[in-house]
Amino acid sequence: MKSVSISGSLRENVGKKDAKKHRIEGKVPCVLYGGKEHVHFVTEETSFKKLVYSPDAYTIKLNLNEKEYNAILQDIQYHPVSDNILHADFLEIFDDKPVTMHIPVKVIGTSEGILKGGRFIQKLRKMKIKALPVNLIDDLVVDITPLEIGDSIRVSNIKKDNITFLDPPNSVIVGVRVTRVIVEETPENAEGAVPAEGATAAAPGAVPPVGEKGKETEKGKEAEKGKEAEKGKEKGKKK
């Protein structure tokens, strides 16, 4: 695993006033535990740049008064308003003792399901592992190439020698889901009639054009006049 070096100096006094004084000077009060005794020290806030503002995981080489310790960052506290680092806890690690830490998940490949229109999801961006320091890895590489729509990769599907995964086995790491598609149905004609070629089917309840309506009215009047004329002729014959 990648490692960063941090230099610091031991604290002569331990207390709120002393810690406040160091913070004003741009330093962060820290504690190293896990060994025979707790070690109180301070270091520059800029030393946390790689540890805090990066998704990568690191082991740390602490240089305190010309003495070196191997450690990992265990906890960190921030100011609620300024986000400045107020305090940090480091855990000393040893070659013969397993270490628990979070490592980032790195996704590679192009899923077959995504190419077919599926939607990619990633549930876990970091995974909790336990291993000896020599077996710690920088990241967990997950290849999504074989995933079809509806497939997923769970914690139980990942196997690494000399590493124990501590997340629930059934937890989904990545997957490909179905994309929701809205299908609009085209309504059929009310009577099932098919419009003639070149003609446009009238929508239900549509009003005929003014010209067409006028023609129908004229035809109706002529038919009525014809009927009246026929009736007049029949009356004349009877007389």
Shape: elongated
Helix fraction bin: 10-25%
Mean pLDDT: 82
Reading side by side through the largest sheet, how are the strands ordered?
Answer: 1-3-2-6-5-4
Give an account of the 3D structure.
Helix content is about 20%, strand content about 35%. With about 240 residues, it is α+β, with helices and mostly antiparallel strands. The chain has two domains: about 5-95, Ribosomal Protein L25, Chain P (Beta Barrel), CATH 2.40.240; about 100-175, Ribosomal protein L25, C-terminal domain (RNA Polymerase Alpha Subunit, Chain A, domain 2, Beta Complex). The protein has a six-stranded mixed beta barrel. The longest helix has 29 residues, at about 210-239. It is elongated.
Please give a quick description of this structure.
Strands 1-3-2-6-5-4 form a six-stranded mixed beta barrel. It has 239 residues and is α+β, with helices and mostly antiparallel strands. It has helices spanning 16-24, 49-52, 112-115, 210-238; strands at 3-10, 27-33, 39-44, 59-64, 67-78, 85-92, 99-108, 119-122, 126-131, 140-143, 152-154, 164-165, 172-177.
Descriptive keywords:
RNA Polymerase Alpha Subunit, Chain A, domain 2; 34% strand; elongated; 239 residues; 19% helix; 2 domains; alpha+beta
Helix/strand layout:
Elements: E1 3-10, H1 16-24, E2 27-33, E3 39-44, H2 49-52, E4 59-64, E5 67-78, E6 85-92, E7 99-108, H3 112-115, E8 119-122, E9 126-131, E10 140-143, E11 152-154, E12 164-165, E13 172-177, H4 210-238
Parallel strand pairs: 1-4, 2-6, 7-10
Antiparallel strand pairs: 1-3, 2-3, 4-5, 5-6, 7-9, 8-13, 9-12, 11-13
